Amino acid sequence: PPYWINMGAVAISTLAGTRLIQAIESSSSSLNTLLPFIKGMTLMYWATATWWIPILLFLGIWRHHVCKFKFEYDPLYWGLVFPLGMYSVCTFQLSKIFEFPFFFALLAKSFAVFALIAWLLTFLGMAKDILYLILLGLGFPPLKEKQ
Question: For the whole prediction, is pTM greater than 0.70?
Fold first, then answer.
C-alpha cells in the first residue's frame, strides 16, 4: 500500500497545477507567459499518476495471488484510499481545464466510486479488528487465532 502514495503525490501535483492554471487564466498577470509550461507539466504529472496505476494493480495481484500474502486489514491500506480519491479529483479538474472529452469525466467518476469502495472496505476491516479486540477485552474466547 505505501507505493500508492507515489501515485497520490503526482495526483496532488496535478491538482495543484490545475488550480494554478485556473488562477492564471482568471487574472491578467504577467504569469500568462508561463501558462504553456505549467499546462505541460500538469499533463505530465497526470500521465505519471495514470502510469502508476496499472503497475500498482499488477503488484497487488502479484502480492496476493502469486505470493499468497493474506488479504486482511492492515492500517497501511489507508495509504491506498487517499491517492485513489486524489486521482479522481485531479482527473476531474484536468478534464474541466483542458476541456477533454467526456471520457475523462467518466474516468474521474469511476475512480471516485473505486475510492469510496476502497474506503468502505478499509473502514470495515478496521471496524472488524476493533470489534475483535473489544470482545477479547471483555473475555470472549477468540474466534480465530491472530497471526
Answer: yes
